[in-house]
Amino acid sequence: MVSLSDGFLSDSAIQKLQQHYNQKGGPSLEVTLAEVQEDLRSSPPQVLTMEDVVLSNGAANGHVEQTTASGQSQRLEPVSAPGILSLVLNIMCAALNLIRGVHLIEYTFQDDYDGLWNVVAFLVAFLCCVCQCHLYLFHTCQKRLKSFTLLTLIVLCNAFLFGPRNIWQLVFHLSVACLSTLLTLHRKLQDRNTDCGV
What we know:
Blueprint: H1 12-24, H2 33-42, H3 50-56, H4 81-110, H5 116-137, H6 143-160, H7 167-186
Helix pairs in contact: 4-5, 4-7, 5-6, 5-7, 6-7
């Protein structure tokens, strides 16, 4: 039985609804068993296998990574304060490289193509900084090889850019790259208990 205080039932429509509810025993769905069976015949349910579920789960948002682990996702330790500092500095270096590269594109294509390799070096350094951020944040296989490859590319790009950059800019960019590589290599997988968190 629905019962409300009289202050809420001042409207006659609400009183009619209350009477309808109390007399019928609840709202009627007006769907019969025959209609449900007809719907099932016209569009039968799809039978899924376990492989379909595993491959489609997470594939829509691009977060599927094939691992050899036994059903547990591999998570890294929480990001530390030096890690946050490294990420912020790495994003700043990436932004500086992109700005300088795009700015140099304007002058390179207006005057001559002498500065084309400087543009390439700035843009490659930008991509390496972004990849270093990704490598620090997410678990990946062959982390050591990828970290040292990115560090080597950043060192080579900055060595090539010794003319457009002064020594302090080079020291800054190289120290941020080294810090990011060091923190990436020291960030371990999070220990998982075998009790599944229960």
